[in-house]
TrEMBL record:
<comment type="similarity">
    <text>Belongs to the ArsC family.</text>
</comment>
<dbReference type="InterPro" id="IPR006659">
    <property type="entry name" value="Arsenate_reductase"/>
</dbReference>
<dbReference type="GO" id="GO:0008794">
    <property type="term" value="F:arsenate reductase (glutaredoxin) activity"/>
</dbReference>
<dbReference type="Pfam" id="PF03960">
    <property type="entry name" value="ArsC"/>
</dbReference>
<keyword id="KW-0560">Oxidoreductase</keyword>
<dbReference type="InterPro" id="IPR036249">
    <property type="entry name" value="Thioredoxin-like_sf"/>
</dbReference>
<protein>
    <submittedName>
        <fullName>Arsenate reductase</fullName>
        <ecNumber>1.20.4.1</ecNumber>
    </submittedName>
</protein>
<dbReference type="InterPro" id="IPR006660">
    <property type="entry name" value="Arsenate_reductase-like"/>
</dbReference>
Amino acid sequence: MEIWVNPACSKCRAATAALDEAGVAYTVRRYLDDPPTREELAAVVARLGLEPWDVARTGEPEAAALDDLTRTPADRDRWLDAMAAHPRLIQRPIITADDGTTVVGRDQASLDRVLSS
């Protein structure tokens, strides 16, 4: 299992605490220090069954990079490029279980889903 975290984020700390409590082994990726590639982002978004704009943090100062993008398939690649260039735009925490189940672990239901996989 892998979890992408920002250690300053309370949701990330809660998710890692839940993983610890469940006794599962996991790898932490501090995605601001070790940003995912565009290809990794595309794979995660696909496993989530979402679009890049669904997992973008549009309230961050770096969101200016998204200003001219539409939420359409025509701009999908540009969203991925912007998020790869500005990893602070990526929603967190993102957890991928060994079986490929992937969630944005911001709530208990999402955490339960990945823990049961």
